[in-house]
Records
---
Amino acid sequence: MNIELKNFGLDGLYAKTSGRLDLDSAVEYGVTIKTAVEDAQEEIKELVLDFSEITFISSFGLKVVLELYKEMQARQGSLKLKDIPEQLKNSFKMVGFDKFLDLD
Amino acid sequence: MFKTLKSKVIFTSFVMLTLLVSVFIFFAIQSRMFTKQLMVQNYGYSIDALFVDDINDSIMTLEDNLKSLALIGGLHYRTSRSDELTDEVIIRIFRNYPHTLGGGIWFKPYIFGDNKKYNCFYAYRNKDNKVVLDKNFASDEYDYPNQQWYKEIISKVTPKRNIVWSKPYYEKIGSTTKMVTAGTGIYAKGKLVGIATVDWEISSVIKNISKMKPYTMTFSMYKKGKNIKNSFVLLGHGDDYIIATNDPYLDGNSLVGHSLKEVPWYAPDLYWKTYITYHGKKYIPFWRKLHNGMVLVICLPKSEMFPYVNDFYFYFTAIILLLIFMIFARVYFGMNRYIMNPIDKLIDIAHKISNGKDVNIKIDKPAEFAQLASTFDTMTKNLKTITKEKEHINSELNIAKSIQASSLPDVFPPFPDRDEFDIYAFMEPAKEVGGDFYDFYFIDENRFMFLIADVSGKGVPAALFMMTVKTLINNLSQVGYEPQELIKVINNKICQSNKQGFFVTMFAGIINVETGDITYINCGHNAPLIKSGTGEYKYLECDSNIVLGAFADFDYKIVQSKLEVGDTICLYTDGMTEATNQNNEMYGEERLLEKINKFDNDDIYTMASDMKNDVIKYSEKIERSDDITLVIFKYKNKHNNMRKTIYKAPASQENYKDFYKWLHEICNQWQINDELKNKLDMCGEEIYANIAFYAYPQTQGDIRVAVLKDETQITLKFADDGIPYNPLEKPDPDITLPPEQRPLGGLGIFMVKEMADNIQYEYTNNSNILTLKFNINQNVQ
């Protein structure tokens, strides 16, 4: 899968991919981003996941999001989701991620 | 009566012993008798040798003497010798015959002239054993021609050379003595001129007789013989007069010259008598006729004759009997020790072995039993080996049985994604591997074939043939033949590969599950039972054609029909109808018809197991010889606007992509809106992942997924043959927790539960089946 990674500001990381975050791709997505966070020269404090081109997210994708959230929390940073398509928001709500993530 | 070997042997030995003893005693008695006869004979010989010959000698000497005297007398008369010369010759003769007491020549009176009346010469042995002449007889005083002896002799001497023995009489010769005179005639010129006589003194005869004490006959090595004390003797003058006897009960002297009839025991046939009883005692008489016609009888007392014989036979018999008893005792105890005891031991060992105990079989003696025991030992060991081998074969047969059984589809429902029909089948094998089988499969998208068959014969060969036939039918069915052609090809193939002459009965149905059109093919099989609608089961009428494998190129008649919703068809093999009870009565088709109607049930699983149990119960006391096989097919409903697609592949993460693409395609085809599509996608992924990760921890297995759609619902059905697992039992995660406390897992199932309108889990026939239902209308709203 193709993941676009960009640093921004002093301590920001921007990640964008397209397609499905599911059994097949979620793990790779998670590992790639996590590695990028860990390998950055500066400590990443802000992680932005661009969901604008994500068409599907399953529990495996949600699990990765939770994992990354926890990772950023441990770094006393933050995780932001950008441009979540409407049809995916239900999934986040269903598992209660709207409690700690800003879906809009 | 004599059941045991021991009693038989004892009985036989006893009979033989009795026989042996009897025979021995018989022979002992015979032998004793024979011995006694031999001894009596020997007594006879010894009496002859010891006495009779002696007496005969004396008599012959006397007679010789007498003849000499007669010759001298004749000479004297013819030559007119002087008397002195004749005297001299006589004295000389007498000297030569010491046995003679006296004797002389007596001429007839006046034979030498009228003036000489007496002319005789007589000499005798005096007390000093000197021979002297006695001239006193030629006197008127004695007048010898008038003497009784003279008269007797002269009257009997003719014809010439006749010797006459006189009765015993008394005469004074020297002194008065008792004597017997023998006389013979003196002839001159053919004329009797006088007689010659010799005297035999009886006293000396009696003296000799008294000495007659024969020795007892004995076994020489045993004891020397001794004189028989109480014997006695009788000398008779022919059968007429007693000459001498020392019979202790008679006065021998006074009886001399008396008739023999005065002797109480004497009888003329004494010669033939074996014994006489005299004064309470038994005597054996030895009767001898002497040379001069006299009779000598020697009587030996029986009690003294066989002194050791009775003893000998008594002891001999006793020793032999003792020996026989000892042999018998030896045989008896030997039998006990060498036969009965080892047999008892072997019996004991056999008991132990039959009770499954490990016994070391060892008998040292006797050799035969040692050999038997070692053979027994070997046999036991061999038996163990053979038993093991048998167990081995049995276990292999069991494996064969299970292979055979597992070759039959036994997962029900076999097509969980197919709602058009229910099918259930089982094969209850008989003790050995059998020849029944059933099978069912789709031969194309909509046509479903189910069949039941029975291969002739039993055991491994039938089972192997069955596997061949089953595979053959399966393969050929997939080729795409039309039923009519299909069965012909199947038959021809079976004919080809059937050198052993097996044949197969088969009933098959090919149904188009969409339309209910069905084709029946019966190849010599039992007519199946069929129920139409709400009616009762009936035997299907259809041509039974001929068994498969009999004739190549046979044209099988097939039956075309149509099943309506709810119709049920039941196939069975003859193991069902021909099951027998203990009275050897068959279960039978009538009973089957009655029972199937009794057990009729919407749930064909229950119905099948009821029917099976009924047959098994019917024949429970009998070891079944044939498999019981049953196939029940129930046509439920036609497609009814329903659309259905099935996915089947090995469950793995790698295959997931294929799966969701398949799912997407269906959603697109069926024009399912995005929200529902997203739900199906998410739930599908979740369940797929569950099965791929957890259902087959050690093995590889398939995942089967069916998507069905009717007017109101979409149904997702997942099936796997992995470990039983009900995902619905998993507790829901707490979604109100702050993110840092949340576990990473457990979200998926929770989401599935949230999204699906209905979830059901079941575990049947070794399969996990999870059914998710989603309402279409609601989603539209």
---
Amino acid sequence: MIPCKPIGKKLTLTLLSVFVFSFVYVSAQDIAAGKAIFMGKCASCHQIGKNGTGPALAGLEERHKWADHNELLKWINNPAGYMKNDPYTQGLLAEYKSMMTGFSDITLKDVDDLVAYINDADAKAKAGPSTTTTTGEPEKGNSNAIIFGVISLILAIIALILMQVNSNLKKMSDDAEGISRPEQVPFYKNKIYIAMMALIFFAVAGYYFSKAAIGLGRQTDYAPVQPIYYSHKVHAGINQISCLYCHGSAWDSKHAAIPAVNICMNCHKSINEYVKGPKLYDEAGNEINGTAEIAKLYKAAGFDPAKPNDWDPSKAKPIEWVKIHNLPDHVYFNHSQHIRAGKVQCQSCHGEVTAMDEVKQVSELSMGWCINCHRETKVDFNYSDSTGNKFYSIYEKFHNDIKNHKMDSVSVKDIGGLECQKCHY
Amino acid sequence: MSQNKYWQSFGEVNDPENLKKLSQDEFQEELPFEGFDDKGLIDAKAPRRDFLKYLGFSTAAATLAASCKIPVNKAIPYANKPENLVPGVAKYYATTYVQDGDVIPVVAKVRDGRPIKIEGNDLSFTGGGTTARSQASVLDLYDMYRAKFPLHRVTKGTDVTFQEVPTFEQFDKMVGDAMKAATGSVVLLTSTITSPTTKEIIAKFPNLKHVQYDAVSYSGILLANEASGFGRKIPNYDFAAAKVIVSIGADFLGTWLSSVEYAKGYSKGRKIDEKNPSMSKHYQFEGHLSMTGSNADERFTHRPSETGAVAVALLAAVGGSVTAPAIADAKLAAGIKKVAEDLKAHNGQSLVVCGSNDKNVQVIVNAINSAIGANGTTIDWSKPVNYRQGIDADMAQLITDMEAGSVGTLMVYGANPAYTHPDAEKFKAALKKVRVTVSFNEKMDETTELCEYILPTHHYLESWGDAEAKTGVVSFLQPTIYPLFKTRPYQTSLLKWSGATQDYDTYFKEYWNTKLGADGFNKALQDGIKEEAPAAAGAGSYSGGAVAEAASAIAGYKKGTGVEVVLYQKVSIGSGSQAGNPWLQELPDPVTKATWDNYALISMAKAKELGIKLDTDYEYYPGKPVIKVTVGKKEVELPILVIPGMNADTIAIAVGYGRNDGLGKTAAGAGKNAYPFTSYNGTTVDNFATGVVIENLNRKEKIAQTQIHNSYEDREEVVRETTLASFKKHPNVIPEWKQHLKEAFYKNANDDFRQATLYPQHEQPGIKWGMSIDMNACFGCGACVVACHAENNVPVVGKSEVLRYHDMHWLRIDRYFISDKENPDNLKGVVFQPMMCQHCDNAPCENVCPVAATNHSAEGLNQMTYNRCIGTRYCANNCPFKVRRFNWSDYTGADSFPNNQDQQIVGKLDPVVFQMNDDLTRMVLNPDVTVRSRGVIEKCSFCVQKLQAAKLDAKKENRPMKGDEAKTACQTACAADAIVFGNSHDKESSISKVRAENTQRGFHVLEQLHVLPNVTYLAKIRNTDEIDAHWGGEHGEEHAADSGDHKTGEHKADSTLPSVPKTEASH
């Protein structure tokens, strides 16, 4: 089973409500919106629980005047202007040595959402290890099939034995009664048995053959050795770096591009050894020296940790990563469409990357897999409560149908999500 | 009253039965079934067992090759990503297409660092229009035959070699030393330069003589305007303001000066408001049938040598004090009289333009324009245009100087006299006497390969620069890609060699930073155009002093007898500088629909004289009779194409063909050079020749024409066309016909519209895409066809494949001649009909696909899925519009199997196919569109990638999509705004409005088939008083009074239009 968006979302919601209940009531919508803003605008400098380029945002409301969101809004909208008469933020600048970027398009509602998300994420982090997504339900269907298969096999064998016993008994009784019948053909020479066995063989072999043929070219579990041992678990899991910090183009573009060397160097200019984290092992079980791997990055970047100020980013050389998720050329896939319009979590397709040292392909990336999700997923339709994406306001027919209770929700398939030319053109 | 006929080929007129028979064969040639002789299968060349062996092996091999090896793909990110660049998101940069003085402000779409598409710049005087050549210019950037580094031409005996000069410094030193050693003047020979900074650099170059030379010269106009008191400049023509437009041989919609701007203005006067139908009136006088002439309301033909006489006669008729010359042709004489009356009636609202390069003729044209009050109304002298500045006498003087040995250094940029000059041999001989010759040209053209030092300049998409198309209107160039090769702007060379230390980029930026300030300069770069306040002074005023002299000079011109040759430019190739462009070579000419060649256009009368029968054989088979055209000592052998509506004694030949190998494999071998037929008359270059001898060589050469490739199988109602008079009289012909059809279908479908088909209806819950094409505003220029190539990765197939009907254009422009039924040479007009997939709601193609590779979307699109297609071509056979294209070969190199391009296996493909598959050329491909492989069908997708992008933008911004937000490539390319596209469910969208406002002209092609197309056409209206019997029924006259009566309409439809096939209503 593939953990598709609805399941993931439902579980997340349940978990969230448990955590959030004891604090204040905040709607999931706000948190989701806040998360989007955080990922899009803040995450490149701020983390929740940890100081980065800028201060950690956890416990934000307890500091300075930030409990008043209007003040916070003023600061975010125009940091330079706010700072002029504000010693606290001047102090921040002195401490972190980089000016906060202003976002004039942020509104008060955005700030509310943002703070809601930050509090929520902080609470979750304090409550224990991340449970943001689930790996899906246990594969019940599959195990049932095995049980049924085994039972039918046993029954078939019993039936065979019984038939054999029956014919032997019959022969014995015939012998006893003196009736002479032609010599019984042993079952392995019986044409009916042979025909049946051949039929079964072809059916089973055909099933596996066609399944294997369909699976040709699919690369589930593909985990090539990368030029640098880069652990997503250390970065995105333990250190909670947002996916979009490095793969930012997923927000704007069809590609979730691999970050350039200068993105890595944003942090690794100061982080030049791997000491605190858990031990790292490659696939064969050999221990990996994290510091040596960071040195490989420095080699590509042309960076000498002894002389950090002499670094010239323009001399950097790109790193030749091995592409893991390959789609055929005739498939158009757009990351921004899925994460922004579709609000799909990265993990829905890429799996629990935060737990992987070396990333492997989790989903099979087959057409059936795509289509299945398109079949089940509800679009962010703007129902009568005026939430949702306003784009869908042009779907007059669905609005009428919902009003007349002919349908209760709109899924991707209803707006043409199963059509060929949504992905092939 | 007349009976008109619409036809595409002479076969339809002269030999319909035979044509029908031939067009039923799928293949025009004999199919090569080898080995099927009497010997039996086992002895055949490919016996059954071998066949099975191959089949089994290839299936197994294909399975193995396709699936077992999973390639390891690398993902290589930037080392240092530029901040404002997101991989996969296109950026748009305003720049300017500059070629031979043509200036078209454009916006280049740059995807991941590669310019891949040219769009028009809405902010500019072109109003966002483009031409075929500017659309195709992006492909020139990736031309593998560009000159790639500085070269030194070394001659050893008879051997000529070109040696690479490793650095620019070395090159500068070589040229500097040579120039110092050479005695004599320093001359820079260029095509027209419109760049203010470049002009300044040239002016600052010590002792530099600058000669501008245009391949197709406009000296005549420049000199005439000087003689008429306006100074040596060309005015701004306003075709939108003109109610009466008279063109004497000027192809102003295709190739004459700023055709984009003129097409835009002209189209404004041609579009019709149904409530009050009126339109501008366009008269054309010309020798051959030009694209502009095809769009004229009334045409009069004359000999090319008669142009002057026609102009003088027209001047006399509008009241000029000149003696009218005798015009022998009664029709022409009557035409001049009629035109003069119309001009006089529209004083101050009319415009006369003339394509002649004769100073005297242009003086007369100025006098006419003055007499009809055009100056200051339709002609604006305050903003002269700078597109062409070359004076032919300067060039003649230069050659004389070169011959005399007084030219020490000759630098050439943009000009190619060794090919385009009337006496190219003379130029070549003179060039040998010049001590130092330098070429800055982008390609190894005919002149460049004779120069000693070759320092190729950047392509315009790699350059900084500016262009002052009109005085006070500057458009800017900015680089969209780092230079691909070791090239350098020619201005930098001029700066360096004149002793300056700056390069051109710095010079240019400093110049404009000083002039506009940093912010102003940035804004100008972003907009791509900067309009300064128009200069009030210097407009000049008309003086008629030169008229009498000009008229008497014209009277003294030799009267042409016998055959004459007129040279013209094709809208695709122009003067030939972009002849190496595969998209342009494969673009069918608007009038002849021929690709890849030039030919001699001759009249039907002349064809008869030469003994050429215009039967189906002539039209159907590509081999055309070859004639020899001789003028003096110059001769050219060319195949002929017969075109109706030509002057009987005129032969027209396009220039720009017959190129050398240096220009690339595309242009080499296509056509013959016609420039030698031009001649210098002492003042200007004449683009025609008299005293021509022609001879039928009784052999044939193949011309790849596309017009007869698709047959509508006798179905009518493909084009709808009438005259303004008929349209006013019977405005409701089309609505009544529609009503009639509807009733007939309803009757067969229990009065339920939905049941008029066997198939279930498709629902469009949200968006329904629709297109409308105004045939009154389509002039046939082909910009949309090239735009479609660029946007959708449409392959180029080469001449040999076009000959086999394998052309791949998703969008074709069908050309229909309108003439009398009896006399096809009496050409009344031409209809251009862009034809692409109609995206039918009841698409016949969908029902016949065995694998459902083509099906319907919820937005009304007829989708084609290449990866599902197995190539049965049933869809193409069942398409009534014949718009589906099949990949007969691997034209794109997209196949997994390299063998598919093996010449031994799949048949010979032209070199151009391999040129298009070169890694460099493939940089032009649009990464959002699949490159199709062999064996699949493709067709117009309504640019679905752009529709998806527009929807996604709206979704990301959390807002409803506006009806006009998504635009197709053909729509944005069109200079005349003939194509409207959008969401027809949105009542506010242009498409909904156009459909609602044009009910009297809007129709669907083959509406009686009930396939419900999503493309609406607006019927073409010609502005004549002729009453068209085709329109409004045979009894049009009688029923004029009660044309609104519904019964009459039905009766008309029954009698003159094909009746609805009642039993076939559900087909």
